[in-house]
Amino acid sequence: MTTQTLTQTGTRANEGFVAIAVAAMLGLGLVFLAGFSPASALHNAAHDFRHTQNFPCH
Question: Which parts pass through the membrane (predicted)?
Fold first, then answer.
C-alpha cells in the first residue's frame, strides 16, 4: 500500500493577495466612478452618502 502526501506551496498567501488586489480594484473603481461621473445624480448621491458617514470630502 502506498501513501501520497500533498504539499501546499504558498497557495494561501497567493489567494490572500489576489483577494486583496481584487477588493482594492473594485473599491477604487467605485470611488472613481462616483467621483468622476458626468451624471450629477450619481455624483450627488455619492457625495451625500459620504456626508452621512462623516467622511470629509471638501
Answer: 16-36
